[in-house]
Amino acid sequence: MMKLLIVSATSSEISPLLKELILTRKVSKHFSSMKFLSSDIDVLITGVGMVATSFHLTKILSTHTYDRIINAGIAGSFSQFIDMGSVYEVVKDQFSEIGAENSSEFLTPFDLGFQEFNEFPFESGFLFNRDSFLSNSFPEASSITVNKVHGCEEEIAKIKLQYSPELETMEGAAFFYVCKMLSVPCAQLRSVSNLIEKRNKSAWDIPFAIESLNLALINILTDV
Predict the structure, then answer these.
(1) How would you write the chain as a 3-class SS string?
(2) What is the structure's pLDDT at 135?
(3) C-alpha torsion sign, points 82, 84, 86, 87
(4) pLDDT band, residue 214 (cuts 50/70/90)
(5) What percent of the chain has pLDDT over 90?
(6) Is the bond preceding residue 121 a cis peptide, omega within 30 degrees?
(7) What's this model's pTM, rounded to 2 decimal places?
(8) What is the pLDDT of residues 76-132, one digit of tens each?
(9) Residues near 32 by Cβ (< 8 Å), separated by ≥ 6?
(10) Within 13 Å, how many C-alpha atoms sit on residue 55's CB side?
(11) What does the alpha-carbon distance between residue 220 and residue 224 come to, in Å, rounded to a whole number?
(12) What domains sit in the chain, N to C, each tagged with a CATH number?
């Protein structure tokens, strides 16, 4: 029987899914074992950000083995042509803030010579997730992973120029990094909650993004 782990930064992002699962064991506030139909599904709530995601995911994978892992959450979009509530599979991600600044540009660890562009798990400086087990069920997107979500027009313009990303999250690249380093099949699923622009929360639609994300998750689990 396939063993699946769902990873999310917050329980609110997957709350509709949690209502469909049967709790079999609550290990901690972060980790629970559940049932969905005939499938055993573990759920890991890491907390927001790369550090929390890296720690809690690595801790669980040191004692548990999974056939597949899905990172599920909401995301901001750099494109005004992406509809709110659209669900994407992120297949290309990167740590966009690690590096150094000089007077005119941002330098990545690869630019600085600290790491090779193609040193595993990176390819050309990016984290790719090719041949996903989701089998092209969702449109694909590229993303950046940040500690500080963008809300300043000047900084947004810079990041678009340097990376040309479609989405932005606070955990995705950390999730990919851990899964790639430990050779665990993984997928990152994101639902768009807002346009990345000058911060304007009145234009966000987090409830719709969560609804769309969880419908997608339930469909995936039904087909497992």
Answers:
(1) CCEEEEEECCHHHHHHHHHHCEEEEECCCCEEEEEECCEEEEEEECCCCHHHHHHHHHHHHCCCCCCEEEEEEEEEECCCCCCCCCEEEEEEECECCCCEECCCCEECCCCCCCCCCCCCCCECCEEECCCCCCCCCCCEEEEEECCCCCCCHHHHHHHHHHHCCCEEECCHHHHHHHHHHCCCCEEEEEEEEEECCCCCHHHCCHHHHHHHHHHHHHHHHHHC
(2) 74
(3) positive
(4) very high
(5) 86
(6) yes
(7) 0.95
(8) 999 999 999 999 999 999 999 999 988 888 889 999 999 999 999 999 999 999 888
(9) 23, 25, 26, 42, 43
(10) 10
(11) 6
(12) 3-223 (3.40.50.1580)
Q: Is 183 left (phi over 0), alpha (psi -120 to 50) or beta?
A: left
Q: What mean pLDDT comes out for the span 30-56?
A: 96
